[in-house]
Amino acid sequence: MNDRIDRQDSVATRIIDGSITIDSVEEFKDLLKAFPNNPRLHRVFADRLLEEKSINAAEEYKASAKLFIEAGMPLQAITCKIFEWRIIRPSKEEGLAFHSDLCECNPQNIEVQKFFTKLAYEEMIALTAKIVPHNYPANSMLKKFGDEENELCFVISGALEETNYHRLEADEKVKKKSTTNLIESDIFGEIYPFEEDKLSESDIESITRVELLKISKLKLTALCGEHPNLNLLMRNLCKYRFESNRERHSKTIRKATRHQLPMQVNLKIFQEESGKPPLNLSGFTDDISLGGTCVVLGAKYQIGDISHLTGKNVKIQMSLPIESISLNILGIIVWGKEIPVEGKNTAIVGVQFKEINHVDRGILKGYCFGSEAEQNLIWSLWNSLMEK
């Protein structure tokens, strides 16, 4: 698989992709306290509330859309708005306010993301009324060679494999040409020019669970006929297609996943009882940002109900594997959970940072957002450490 698809798991990522489930709404709220600015977690929580037919799902979709806008991901923001507006029909003022945010968004350097920021208000409303979200599990064949090209698909999340073929004119046999990956903010569907009938020249299969926004060629043709600017934007988007997009995605996605870099930590958990010594535990980060981190404590600790640690103040010491630097940060445990890993129960806690000095903040920021070469070195050092 292409190295654009990150192989390093994190607790947040496993919750987002569905491999870990949160048992209750209250547990999810505790998780969001540790990661209040993670749009994907808010989106997963909104989906959970929607399954329970809770009206509160609309507010979570709204919160997620706002955070996606701030992250420069208008495609994902629009998806959240589609769900929100299905639950509560928006006023024109609300629609205009979102459109204003969309236009002011500083999108990631991806043409698909930029496309949505260039829509006029009427075009945005018309498109969101016709485009439909779809979810597919891993290993689903979404398109086969020779299928009619009758829809345009935007990849909201997940990864797919596209196997391209070409036909040998001599005997009309087909031969595999190349295999590439499609990830979020890619598009597929050869539907332009609208007046031409085309057949698929590739197989497209989901590698992971994926979410798509899909619109039929028929509906899109009608919309573009009504909105000339939309027709121009769509023509440019379809012409742009894939190749330059992939190179730009690679850098963007690696930067977005650097928060999952591992780091050894020691936790000093202060006990509320007078005279009781602090509880000292060690582990490693499974997801980290400037606001907090998940810490995997492992199966060796027998500390009873892990949720009892929620609300306790901690001092967390982090050792950077790339250089001999330790950070000391004060925080609070906002959630605790046990999950099965390789047949053993593994304790995990979420720590929200409370106090971090200016120097340590600068070091941590550089660690999370360093150059690609630095990130590769960090992983190499970490893997070497784990093999000892």
Shape: elongated
Largest β sheet strand count, sense and barrel closure:
6 strands, antiparallel, barrel
Q: Please identify the structural class as seen in this structure.
A: alpha+beta
Low-confidence stretches: 1-9, 242-259, 371-388
The number of E-state strands comes to 14
Any idea what the radius of gyration is?
Answer: 23 Å
* Proportion of residues in extended strands: 25-35%
CATH superfamily of the largest domain: predicted glycosyltransferase like domains
User: Helix fraction?
Assistant: 25-40%
CATH architecture of the largest domain: Beta Barrel
Q: How would you state the average pLDDT, rounded?
A: 79
Explain what the structure shows.
It is a single chain. The chain is α+β, with helices and mostly antiparallel strands and 388 residues long. The protein has helices at residues 11-16, 25-34, 39-51, 57-70, 74-87, 92-104, 111-117, 121-130, 217-226, 228-240, 243-257, 358-368, 372-387, and strands at residues 132-136, 141-143, 151-157, 160-167, 174-182, 187-188, 202-206, 210-216, 264-269, 279-288, 292-298, 313-320, 325-341, 344-355.
Summarize the structure.
The protein contains 13 helices and 14 strands. It has 3 domains: 11-129; 133-256, Jelly Rolls (Sandwich), CATH 2.60.120.10; 261-387, Thrombin, subunit H (Beta Barrel), CATH 2.40.10.220. The protein has helices at residues 11-16, 25-34, 39-51, 57-70, 74-87, 92-104, 111-117, 121-130, 217-226, 228-240, 243-257, 358-368, 372-387; strands spanning 132-136, 141-143, 151-157, 160-167, 174-182, 187-188, 202-206, 210-216, 264-269, 279-288, 292-298, 313-320, 325-341, 344-355.
